[in-house]
């Protein structure tokens, strides 16, 4: 059974995540306030960021950087700029 939450990213009711995807307090906030759709959008951005910046996920600094980007993207409405990436024209 899916759960409906108010998604802070989409600014509307949407299907919530099935379980907490991220540890700790931030993970709980994401679980309560971020939809499956918004999380999928972030996953795409995250993959592009990791590839573009050649982030080593074993490096605590890289993980901290990604977490800051994730918070800005999901909760502060900031689009993540990917250098050398041009979004497809609508």
Automatic annotation (TrEMBL):
GO terms for molecular function: iron ion binding. It holds the Pfam family Iron_traffic. Transmembrane segments: none annotated. Gene3D superfamilies: Fe(II) trafficking protein YggX. Keywords: Iron. One of its GO terms (cellular component) is cytosol. GO terms for biological process: cellular response to oxidative stress. InterPro entries: Fe_traffick_prot_YggX, Fe_traffick_prot_YggX_sf. SUPFAM superfamilies: YggX-like. Could be a mediator in iron transactions between iron acquisition and iron-requiring processes, such as synthesis and/or repair of Fe-S clusters in biosynthetic enzymes. Necessary to maintain high levels of aconitase under oxidative stress. Belongs to the Fe(2+)-trafficking protein family. This is Probable Fe(2+)-trafficking protein. It comes from Idiomarina tyrosinivorans.
């Amino acid at each position: 059974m899916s759960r409906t939450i108010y998604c802070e990213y989409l600014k509307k009711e949407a299907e919530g995540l099935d379980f907490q995807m991220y540890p700790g307090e931030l993970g709980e906030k994401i679980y309560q306030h971020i939809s499956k759709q918004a999380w999928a959008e972030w996953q795409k951005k995250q993959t592009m960021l990791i590839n573009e910046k050649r982030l080593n996920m074993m490096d605590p600094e890289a993980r901290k950087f990604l977490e800051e980007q994730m918070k800005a993207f999901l909760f502060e409405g900031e689009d993540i700029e990917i250098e050398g990436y041009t979004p497809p024209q609508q």
